[in-house]
TrEMBL record:
Residues 190-287 form the Methyltransferase domain. Pfam families: Methyltransf_25 (PF13649). PANTHER family: METHYLTRANSFERASE. InterPro entries: Methyltransf_25, SAM-dependent_MTases_sf. This is Methyltransferase domain-containing protein. It comes from Nocardioides bigeumensis.
Length: 390
């Protein structure tokens, strides 16, 4: 290309740091190899394990685990479940490794984003993060997604290949957003709790142009990235650092719907119980609480054996406690009515086989929902320093 070339190609902007990292040919080839192995794990290897476990399906999950411990297929399955995640994150072309090397540049990107529309990002970095959050390396991500700017970007890049068998990665979140729209007044206030980098918040924003949409998360880094992405796309979303179990920035009876995707399996039961009470406080009478998470497990004991194994192997300890929790009873105790837990399709027709084990490895997606009765008023009162309507 000549130095005075003014064609479109010559004027093309430099790719963002994160795009350059994942676009590097060696990184892309290595990550594609890991995704290919994960696809093999999710389909062929899973099918062998599932068919072997079917012979002991009458036994409880712990005993299935013992019976399967001598199976070569299961040992390979379990080993790969741990190590594919580590391969994706670490080593020469691992995402966490590569993004950490660019931490300063990525911090610069977040800082630039924060300068644009600063009133739409309210980080509360003086407030300490809870122990259960900082002491657990969820998804085997060392140091979590809250320590450094690069952690948020690595998390965003890694999330693209969590479910390689699903045909359309963003579809689950879009259909959840459609559900949120269906249960919320068009001009209502929606909180996307545990919003991460905005995977559900953005489709809610797009689906509900007349609503006030607020993303809430514990991680200031992830919120900075969510804010940056919203600014880049011209999406009007406020992002606020807060805790689902102690929402100091939200007033009583100020929210129409609290939605959360993939959040509640990341907190211990006592924290989740407190979160239900806190949701009840901030919801308006008639307001709705809806989680998209793992609860109704298809495939009976074998299905539970597989998801409990995932909980251990991917370091997601609170999946186990969520599955053991009596959600209906805890919701009722918090004051909610119309409590329901309903299987939710990862993609259209994923649940076509009803309660049987799915054909491929799939998360047991469930809508867990309830309504704050229209007539009652919340018990405790709190004045917030940030109004969601501002
Ligand atoms: C698995 S991610 C899901 C992110 C996003 N909702 C999605 O569907 O991709 C869970 C998110 O919840 C946040 N989180 C965990 N505990 C929280 C809490 N107690 N209050 C608010 N956010 C929390 C984490 O920081 C993380 O961003």
């Amino acid at each position: 290309m000549r130095a005075d070339d003014t064609s479109e190609a010559a004027r093309a902007p430099e790719p963002a740091v994160e795009d350059a990292i994942v676009g590097d040919l060696r990184t892309a080839a290595y990550q594609a190899y890991v995704v290919g192995l994960k696809r093999y794990w999710s389909t062929e290897l899973y099918a062998v394990v599932a068919s072997q476990a079917a012979h002991v399906a009458e036994q409880p999950p712990r005993e299935i685990e013992q019976a399967m411990s001598t199976s070569h297929a299961y040992r390979a399955f379990a080993w790969l479940e741990v190590h594919l995640q580590q391969m994706k994150y670490y080593g020469r072309w691992g995402l966490v490794t590569l993004f950490a090397e660019a931490d300063d540049q990525l911090a610069g990107e977040l800082a630039e984003g924060q300068k644009r529309e600063p009133d739409k990002l309210a980080n509360d970095v003086e407030r300490p993060l809870p122990d259960y959050y900082v002491d657990t390396d969820f998804h085997q991500h060392r140091g979590g997604i809250w320590s450094d700017p690069s952690d948020a970007f690595a998390y965003e890049a890694a999330a693209r290949s969590t479910t390689p068998v699903a045909s359309d990665h963003g579809d689950l979140h879009s259909r959840f957003a459609d559900h949120v729209r269906a249960i919320t007044p068009a001009d209502g206030v929606v909180l996307d709790m545990g919003c991460g980098f905005g995977k559900t918040t953005e489709p809610i924003r797009r689906a509900m142009p007349g609503a006030t949409v607020v993303g809430v998360d514990l991680s200031p880094q992830v919120l900075g990235l969510a804010h940056l992405r919203a600014v880049q796309q011209g999406l009007d979303i406020r992002y606020v650092q807060d805790r689902q179990e102690d929402l100091v920035h939200f007033e009583d009876e100020s929210v129409d719907t609290i939605a959360a995707s993939m959040l509640i399996h990341e907190v211990p039961t006592d924290v989740l119980v407190q979160s239900l009470r806190e949701a009840y406080r901030v919801l308006k009478p008639g307001g709705r609480l809806v989680y998209l998470d793992f609860y109704e497990v298809p495939g009976g004991n074998v299905g539970r054996f597989l998801i409990l194994g995932h909980s251990t192997r991917n370091n997601e300890p609170f999946i186990r406690s969520l599955l053991a929790m009596d959600f209906h009873a805890e919701m009722a105790a918090a004051g909610f009515t119309d409590v329901a837990t309903t299987s939710f399709e990862e993609e259209p027709d994923a649940l076509a086989r009803g309660t049987e084990l799915p054909e491929f490895w799939r998360f047991p997606w469930t809508l867990l929902a309830g309504t704050k009765p229209a007539t009652e008023s919340a018990g405790t009162t709190r004045t917030a320093d940030i109004s969601v309507a501002s």
